[in-house]
Design brief:
about 290 residues; alpha+beta; eight-stranded antiparallel β-sheet; HTH_AraC; DNA-binding transcription factor activity
């Protein structure tokens, strides 16, 4: 099955089972993928988590039902997966800006999130510069935090993590320690088998360093891998985010590789992060 067909099949599966207790593992199985990898790919391509998409679709349908039927609000709340009318009202107001009662009275406007449709566009006109390298295992040292990908905690928390390491001087220390082949400071996304079952990742801010682990830092061993290394040019964070989208929307569908599932790297130089000439890289282990 092709890339586009598999994603579309997953969307169809979600829509057909939207009122059920959806299992992330079963959703990913429809795409012949691990739950972790599918959720990560979905969020990269759509800028929202899979959980966000399901919640927004349910609340969109709930609003339509309140507008078009006389069904009781409490019954609608249970139907769309909320244990209490209070939790339903809170989620409904967050999405639509009005309460279910106001929607029933046609007061205010509804924010409708429609079913995702995969469209095939002509892409690839902008070149992607990359190389394939093989590298032995190496040690990186730095700091880490744990995030949940299911609820989008990673997309909100990781930028705050970077703010913290810049503010407390850890970023500068990592640049000073860097003595390995990969020059710069690394953002390392790690999800072992146990983590994947629970949609958890460890995110490291670290550097390639050979030597005794400095005080207040921890070490991680990055396994030997074949890597595809993409150049990233432009200001952060947009350039990095746009390149990730290109990788999953264009490069992987056009090449005979898939992610190996081991730690991926974002490599940041000491260039001005707001500069159009800022250079960075994305390293993805492949098989």
């Amino acid at each position: 099955m092709g890339w586009v067909e598999s994603i579309q099949q997953v969307i169809s599966y979600i829509e057909d089972h939207l009122l059920e207790d959806l299992s992330m593992e079963q959703i990913a199985k429809e795409a012949n993928s691990s739950a972790f990898h599918f959720q990560r790919t979905f969020s990269i391509l759509t800028d929202m988590s899979l959980g966000d998409y399901i919640r927004r679709r349910r609340l969109t349908l709930a609003a339509q039902e309140l507008l078009n039927t006389d069904n009781k609000i409490i019954d609608v709340s249970y139907k769309y997966g909320y244990d209490t009318p209070e939790s339903f009202t809170k989620a409904f107001r967050k999405q639509h800006g009005i309460t279910p009662s106001e929607a029933r009275k046609n007061i205010g406007k509804i924010n409708s999130y429609n079913r995702l449709i995969i469209q095939v566009n002509l892409k690839g006109a902008e070149p992607m510069k990359y190389k394939i390298v093989e590298k032995e295992s190496f040690q990186a040292v730095g700091v880490k935090r744990k995030y949940n990908c299911k609820n989008g905690e990673n997309t909100q928390g990781i930028p705050l993590f970077w703010n913290d390491v810049h503010a407390d001087g850890t970023n500068d220390l990592l640049f000073q320690l860097n003595n390995g082949d990969i020059e710069g400071v690394l953002g390392v996304c790690v999800a072992d088998a146990a983590y994947r079952e629970n949609s958890l990742i460890d995110y490291w801010i670290a550097t390639d360093y050979a030597g005794e682990v400095p005080e207040n830092l921890s070490a991680i061993t990055i396994p030997a891998s074949k890597w595809v290394v993409f150049e990233v040019h432009g200001p952060m964070p947009d350039a990095m985010q746009n390149t990730w989208k290109q990788i999953y929307a264009e490069w992987f569908p056009s090449n005979p590789y898939e992610p190996a599932g081991t730690p991926e790297l974002e490599v940041y130089s000491d260039d001005d992060p707001s500069s159009e000439n800022c250079y960075s890289e994305i390293w993805i282990p492949i098989k």
